[in-house]
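Field: COMPLEX_INPUT
Field: COMPONENT_COUNT = three
Field: RESIDUE_TOTAL = 1165
Field: MODE = joint
Values follow.
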Amino acid sequence: MHQSINNDFLQKAIGTPVRRLDALDKASGRAKYIADMKFDGLLYARMIRSSRARARLLHVAVPALPEGYYYISSNDIPEGGENRLYMITNDWRVFAEDTVRYIGETIGLLVGPDRNVLRDLEREIKISYEDLEPAFTIDEGLAVKGGPIHGEDNIFAEYNLKKGDPDSIFSGSYRIVEDEILTGFQEHAYMEPQGMVGEYKNGKYVITASCQCPYYMRKAVAGILAVDQEDIVVSQAITGGAFGGKEHFPDVIAGPLVVAVHVIRKPVQIVFDRHEDISFTAKRHPSRTRFRTAIDENNRIVGMDIDIAINGGGYQSCSHIVLQRAMFSVNSVYDLPNIRIRGRAVATNTFPSDAFRGFGAPQGIFACEMHMSHLARALEMDDAEFKQQYFVQTGGTTVTNGMIHEEVKLPEMLEKVLESSGYIEKNRLYAGEGAAKAVGISFYNHGGGFTGDGEKEIIKARVRVSRDQNHKVTIYVSNVEMGQGFQTTACKVAAKVLGIPLQDVFFQNPDTSVVPNSGPTVASRSMMIVGKLVERAARQLKNSWNDQGAVDAEEDYVQPPGIEWNSTTFQGDAYPAFGWGICAVEVAVDPATAEVETKGIWTVHDIGVPIDDLIVHGQVHGGVIQALGYGSLEKLEVKNGAFLQNTFADYIIPTTMDFPAVESDLVENPYEYGPFGAKGMGELVFDGAAAAYAAAVQKAVDRDICSIPVNPELIMKLRQA
Amino acid sequence: MAVSYVPATFEEAVRIRRETGAVPVAGGTDLMVRYRSPAGTLPDFPWPVMFISGLKEMKGLFLEGAELVIKAGTELAVIEHSEIVHPVLREAVRQMAAPALRNLGTLSGNICNASPAGDAVCVLYALGAEVELTSSSRMRRMPIEHFITGPGRTVLKDDELMTAVRIPLHSDSASFYRKVGTRKANALSKLSCTGFITVTENRIVDMRLALGAVGPMVVRSAELESQCIGMDLNQFSNFKPDLRKQYAELVTPIDDQRSTAEYRKETTLNLIDEFFMLIEKELS
Amino acid sequence: MQQITFILNGEKQVVSADPSSRLLDILRDTLGLTAVKEGCGEGECGACSVLKDGKLVNSCIVPMGSVDGAEITTLEGLRDTAEGENIISAYADSGAVQCGFCTPGMVMAAAALLRENPEPDEQEIREALSGNLCRCTGYNLLVKGVTLASERGKEKGIWQ
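Field: COMPLEX_OUTPUT
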């Protein structure tokens, strides 16, 4: 097969596209995902799960098992080991004991060699429960329906922020506009379902997993077996999409798996089928955001009182951090005066919510963008015209009273989008026609990397770049290639610094016994933070390029100067730099069926400098279409604690036919502390499209839209109102 | 574990059916999905099955007198691309699922599935299709609305195979077909609406309307249709509000994971309005 | 169990299988052809696409009982041919490959389309890929990849 890789980027701009390093292996079907890998004597495991949302677990009756079959439960956790997962919070249990908190909670594992036998045995397991009264919604959680699930009030976390002097504003006599914005669950729908294999090899527990964060998993499970973290080795398998769904949730699979491997000492595989994956994995947090906005006699916003609540489900996991980002994002790209924000993450008996591309920002930004568009409608102004008055500027203040350090290019970006989309002319024309057509617009930004001082105080990333005696270079990081292109872009950074062809730079899937801990593959940090360390290590290597033998270069994270953050009061610079985006979407709404035809999608992003134009545009297209799915098609309802849409026939993600091509444009804005000027982008490109879509439909049907998904059922209801 | 058979000939299929009651699986696009089981395990059929997609005798479509005969094993993709099939039926088939499924699925399988949400089935009701049922001792045929008796229920006997769908050739002045799916392609339907109108000398000589996914079975009312026969524009326009009201009473959808009863009802009535406008256009 | 005889990637294959077992499981587990992926097991996502008698089908819902006497082509049988290489490299060069899990199915869907219609327009490409779900790319670059495969294939005379 033709193997040539274009090395033009060595002479030209780094963004000059190359053929991705993994493209041919994947497209030819040679790439081995976890379910494709062969293990000698492999056993299969089926998760035995709670069928009740909230109940006392009375008894698990397991049939007599044939030889070679095992039932693994909390009784198999060795002495000194704990029945809990060391995730961001340590509350999620490995196996349910005494009570269950959500449908799908792990009770046991059934393990054996023949999958048909396992299926039949699984049916013979009888679990008896005593049902308790569950709470499913944010309101039911806050009302502590059925008694507390967590603490005394079901509040996993509550934070309060204040900017300016909201108290004086809201005690005054301004016009107050109230609003309530809702977002629902969203399923990641990575194409490769969750899967991993555990083995016991040379005194170590080796987990080969489809995952984003090998070091997280190591930490999460070591305590279950009361072993050192070094006794757990996590090796990333080629990962078929993740989007945050393989950030923490794989730990929930790995926990029971290592217990099984500890007992059986043979390789054990857990691979979910799609029905399990939709029904029994974490989802994006549903949110409810309430606004009270004070408007003065000149129709200017003078203050905002915001209350955000998110549904965390049965365990906390990372809900408090998601909540923080939702709060920090709830003023979108606007520098508004006198802000009060209250945020709460609420415990309920739904499946625990967890990380999903954007990590709270999509909820916060959707709420803000829709509320701002409602204000514009109330004041009889155009959305874009109204919103741009409040664009934050360089030196402007964020909701955490931090400062925007970088140049803000929103005005330039807005001009580009207005021109490419024909926003002004089309909306003028459609309004005159009375047609159910419109162009909607949204503005958004996304802080790259961990919030506040997380990179410095918690993650402390380290990378190593090595050159062997044949002058081949290998990058050692714990960040994974999961589709986003990091393998290729990381190699491009090193190759460009060293001035060597891309074929001479290698990046293997991380294995915790080999790579240093450069942190998890999350928070749009891989290129901006880890890529910068790769760049620095490569520079170091360049200086010793002519040394004899093999040469190693290591670099540790250093916080950019001028960043101030107080992690107790949440005051200061929550993020060192932001990606910025504008999205416009044109729709036509069918008069008879309320079906929406999307006529065009235009975006402009500032992500610093692209490390590969084609990979960046691919991320933009994918993120925008995924967000349009979130905004329009992807309804995920809970009925009696279970997800009602639990197959790909009913959980509706976009196909080729649902949306036209995304027209994606970039403005360059080099970030001094990113590699070659790059900033984070993977989540940014998800954050805004749902609001642009909703704003377009809102304009087309002339009704305020306050929730997603904006499906024909909702539009029909709004039209009738 | 269910027993399964692979008959080599049609005669053998009929015999296996008679002797074991094995349920025929043609494309498998419904049954292999409904009884699917985790990777590496066998589908969980509750009865014996036989796989009939290899039977050449069961494939093909042709004109016979005033009928189009679509043999039971004919794949949807073949129907979609055939020039001798009514364009509305072709369009309904084209909007089903995705290309790979249409290469497997069959119209007869859809009928036996007896889902009120079957889009092409809705068109077959409107076209007055009949089904042909064959056992070792007899062959019988009946209108599709007699064959399907409820959601998932038919009068197919344990020793019978559906062998063909027979569709009377239909010439109309205008037709109407609209499927509202869960998305633009590869979608199950929330509802569908099929209408045919034939006008001679500015009077209705034939009017048909079939509605999918708005009740336990496809809705078609011979009584309401016959009331329209002979009407001119003026008469129809006067009758229209009452007719709409009577159809509204027949539209009794439910809430489910794909849509709401409210949406289905409202949208179906909107589509009926569109069809009525088409009728008025044809009459003027 | 039953002896089932079929042509797999151009060669005669006899397997002993329950007729109700899925073609997908036989290809992956029995025959080790792991380019065929399981994405949903219900015919909705297209990751398991193969050609059966030249037509695109979802192998997760094809029972082995329907395979007796059929001709099955998987990506393993296509990837080293001029036709397969052309599509694979066109996807690679277009930036159409991200996580890669849907890509083998996308290659099969493109092959099925281009055999029937070597010069499809964008709408025809979108229709042909409509049964293959992708969550990474938003489909734009996949569509471009098929266009590129069509252009290059024409130059190389692949469909003549």
